[in-house]
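User: I'm preparing a small set of examples for a lab meeting where we compare how different chains pack in three dimensions. I only have the primary sequence for this one, and I'd like the structure in token form so I can line it up with the others. Please keep the answer compact; I'll paste it straight into my notes.
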Amino acid sequence: MGSLAVPDPADATARLLALVLERAPRTLAGVADELGLVEPELAPLLAALERHGLVARDDAGRLRPGPAAGRFARSAVAREELAAHAAGALRRLAEETGETANLMVPTPDGTEAIAQEDGRHLLGATNWIGRDIPDHASAAGKLFLAHGVSGIPSRLQRFTEHTLADRPRLEAALATVRERGYATLVDELEPGLSVVAAPVFDAHGAVVAALAVSGPTTRLPAPKLGLVGRVTIEQAHAVSARLGYRGALEDALA
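Assistant: Understood. Below is the structure token output for the 254-residue chain.
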């Protein structure tokens, strides 16, 4: 077994972060091998990166970029550029669903719309631009939580009787989001509002944004949410492809 004194901890920590940002998820054993370290030597380096939100572990213990790293990465993709890439997809979403379509990005306080395309209906049309919405009460926010872009806060505010303000219920819902590839919100932020959101990935496979469709629950009943979800996945994948993502659409729709 090797010595627990890492020759250059700063260099090793930087290399560890670079490996995780380059490709994720990664196993502890795999990273240790690439760095020429044993896992006990890796532990303090990893702990420092986790404390600062630069690296996080998924449910299987594999390493992924943490929420802080995600925020830094998103700053490299200017909001204006992201909105330009998503403009066509937003138009098609609004046309196909008839509802309001938004481009959502994570913020330190939740999720925010940075672009919007209004649908053909007057009822339910709301300007979401610039509004910060807590992740647990946002369809896009649930995506960011499910993919580890954001962390679940210690306090979950209840907005309606349907808000997922209980951590175990929220975690179960996030597992469903990961399984089906899109998130829904039904009467959880305010009564009568339903939303569907699908993730936008960058060239490295990290979630950097989401496309969301919102409208009155009366026009988006449960059976329709699944149909809108698939359409939203398709358009979100088109934006991801423009950002250099090479994942297969068939996998997302499986």
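A couple of notes for your slides: The CA atoms of residues 139 and 184 lie 5 Å apart. Residues 77-253 form a domain with the Beta-Lactamase fold (CATH 3.30.450.40).

User: Perfect, thanks.
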